[in-house]
Design goal:
about 425 residues, mainly alpha, 15 helices, transmembrane, cell membrane
Length: about 425
């Protein structure tokens, strides 16, 4: 009897360790996030020290153009594949690949055509138009990745995904810093990004199955359109919400001021929002799987994650705001000290954004992506009302606080919709 008692506590750690290292465990998502976002931080912080705020602003403008174009043409096919009850066939994957590759090519050509106009609008320095032309190649490289990547996400093989993402991040960071040190200037960041995306695309074809047929094929794509149209709508609204302030600052203040604005926002995102966004990559397929089996269990799991995340974010926000000045001096140097007041606001914004990431993952998992889109519209209406006055009286700080108000309104709207759906379910 004594032997039985002593054997139980010895088995539990072994089971826990095995569960934590299972290919579908959240451990791999967190490890991926830690390494990938850590390397992104190292890359941009190193480039910030080597190149300065103006160069970071120019780089951010090029990447901003890519983000805007990709958001406007987001198909939502990845989320549709993950959420659908049935796995896609080889022919359906072929249609997805055709759609994504065509999309990437069209975005690249559009960015290349608009490069001279963007060069003037964003006040880039002489010789930096090539930065925009180089950025135009990024969407095409991303579009050539194998859609089997989404099937791997659907099957929750997070270990496989983490290996590919971390390999691409190592290549990106290494090439970018090496290029900057050898005199590539503002082009260093783009060289790194292109290298990482190319490696990722190649690895999706080499290591993931089934491989879609390499031919133009559209048959089967309509299966995912009904769901994905809400993802596209959310992307368009999110574009207006997430990039509006950046476009305003970049066009009115130029690359140098935009560099400081963007770095403070990026640093807050690295410290707060990125972990939740990465966690949503685990939670979306997990919530989807649980919802297919038992909707009540999925609901309990969602509430548990949301409560833990909220408590952790409150602690982090307090600590980061208290140590903001020392953090900037230590990490970026005294030349970046002017960005601290904005950073104090951005940590609040990113904390709310982290909560939104979990809410959106759950809403999409239960087949209600339009609720997230409606929340984004609420956020946009709040910004439309508050931004003009806030910008007039408080400048960039006012814009940042307006974003805080919009994010809070969107969060409350999604929580209201979830509460209302629970009440309706109990009534029926």
């Amino acid at each position: 009897m004594e032997q039985t008692r002593t054997s139980r506590p010895l088995r539990l750690p072994t089971f826990s360790l095995r569960a934590g290292l299972h290919p579908s465990a959240a451990t791999w998502v967190l490890l991926q996030q830690l390494i990938v976002r850590g390397l992104v931080a190292v890359k941009f912080l190193a480039l910030g020290r080597i190149l300065g705020p103006a160069a970071i602003g120019s780089i951010s403008i090029a990447l901003l153009a890519v983000a805007i174009a990709e958001s406007l043409s987001d198909t939502g096919l990845a989320q549709a594949i993950i959420q659908d009850r049935d796995a896609p066939t080889a022919s359906q994957l072929g249609a997805v690949f055709t759609t994504l590759a065509t999309r990437g090519m069209c975005i690249g050509l559009l960015l290349a055509a608009l490069a001279p106009t963007m060069f003037r609008v964003f006040h880039l320095r002489a010789g930096e138009i090539g930065l925009l032309l180089l950025a135009a190649a990024i969407p095409f490289i991303r579009g050539t990745s194998s859609p089997a990547y989404y099937l791997v996400q659907r099957e929750r093989r997070f270990q496989h995904i983490a290996a590919i993402e971390m390999s691409a991040a190592v290549a990106d960071c290494s090439v970018a810093i090496a290029s900057a040190l050898t005199g590539a200037g503002v082009y260093a960041a783009l060289f790194g990004t292109m290298t990482g995306e190319t490696l990722k695309s190649a690895l999706t074809w080499i290591t993931m199955a089934p491989r879609p047929p390499l031919r133009l094929a559209w048959s089967g794509i309509s299966r995912y359109v009904r769901f994905s149209r809400w993802i596209w709508a959310a992307s368009v609204v999110s574009l207006l919400l997430n990039q509006f302030d950046k476009v305003v600052v970049a066009t009115l203040l130029g690359p140098a001021q935009f560099g400081a604005y963007q770095m403070s926002s990026r640093l807050a995102q690295m410290l707060l929002a990125d972990a939740a966004i990465a966690m949503s990559q685990f939670l979306f397929p997990t919530f989807s799987s649980q919802h297919r089996q038992n909707s009540q269990r999925a609901k309990r799991l969602f509430k548990r994650y949301l409560a833990v995340l909220f408590c952790g974010l409150v602690v982090l926000v307090v600590l980061l705001r208290a140590s903001a000045t020392r953090l900037f001096v230590l990490v970026l140097g005294k030349s970046w000290i002017g960005a601290v007041p904005l950073f104090d606001i951005f940590v609040i914004n990113m904390a709310i954004g982290a909560l939104i990431a979990v809410l959106v993952a759950y809403l999409r998992a239960v087949g209600n992506p339009k609720a997230a889109t409606h929340a984004s519209i609420v956020q946009m209406l709040v910004l439309a009302v508050t931004v003009p006055l806030a910008t007039r009286y408080w400048g960039a700080t006012g814009v940042a606080w307006s974003i805080t108000a919009g994010l809070a309104a969107a969060t409350m709207f999604m929580l209201y919709r979830l509460t209302r759906s629970d009440q309706c379910a109990r009534c029926t």
